[in-house]
Amino acid sequence: DQQVKQNSPSLSVQEGRISILNCDYTNSMFDYFLWYKKYPAEGPTFLISISSIKDKNEDGRFTVFLNKSAKHLSLHIVPSQPGDSAVYFCAASAQGQTGANNLFFGTGTRLTVIP
Amino acid sequence: DSGVTQTPKHLITATGQRVTLRCSPRSGDLSVYWYQQSLDQGLQFLIQYYNGEERAKGNILERFSAQQFPDLHSELNLSSLELGDSALYFCASSVRDNNQPQHFGDGTRLSIL
């Protein structure tokens, strides 16, 4: 049972434009959400996170939005750069409910930024 | 560089064998996590240790075991290996075990022949 879903396997965006990556989840106990970027032959690299008490968190070109009622979060990258081309994973945990910090991952979205 | 070190990078072995994967967490991190990424699946949580003690278990097979040592490095032991165990095994670490980002190593690719 996939509790975190990324329904778009791939996304192509022109350099300089906005990239929007989406993620849906089913477990209402999730209270911490993260985005990771992954290049081939490397481990996932942490990008940005958000707690369920917030609806937005910003770090430079990256902004994560959380809509708890819709069980949806998104990652905005503005402006997109060719170096952003990678696979992006959404992840969530239910630490406040379970006491465990293990992450549930989506299946990833491959972002290609076209120069 | 995440600061998490995994060895070996690649491991090729045969069915029925036993292997040990090693992970050194980032300096100062007390919590270590193991994840498995199979070809047709996303990252799946296996087990978490915090300061030497098991904290959480995911869908880890009974043939698999792990431990975290006093110096905080961790080992994942896989025994009676089957073809389906071929996967990427990632280790991650975080400072504590509450809501903090986990930082991943580059993984160990295990191939069972």
Shape of chain A: globular
- Outline the low-pLDDT stretches of chain B: none
Distance between the termini of chain B: 31 Å
Percent helix range of chain A: under 10%
Strand content of chain A: over 45%
Q: What does the main sheet of chain B amount to?
A: 7 strands, mixed
Oligomer: heterodimer
Task: Walk me through this protein's architecture.
The complex is a heterodimer of chains A (115) and B (113). Chain A is globular and about 45 Å long. Chain A has one helix and eleven strands, in the order βββββββββαββ. The relative contact order of chain A is 0.34. In chain A, 3% of the residues lie in helices and 52% in strands. Chain B is mostly beta strands and 113 residues long. Helix content of chain B is 0%, strand content 51%. Chain B has strands at 5-7, 10-13, 19-24, 31-37, 43-50, 53-57, 64-68, 74-78, 87-94, 103-104, 108-112. In chain B, the strands form two sheets. In chain B, strands 2, 4, 5, 6, 9, 10 and 11 form a seven-stranded mixed β-sheet that branches. Chain B has a four-stranded antiparallel β-sheet with strand order 1-3-8-7, with no helix packed on it. Chain B is globular, with a radius of gyration of 13 Å. The A-B interface holds A 2, 31-32, 34, 36, 41-46, 49, 51, 89, 91, 93, 95-96, 98-108 and B 2, 4, 6, 31, 33, 35, 41-45, 48, 55-56, 58, 90, 92, 94, 97-107.
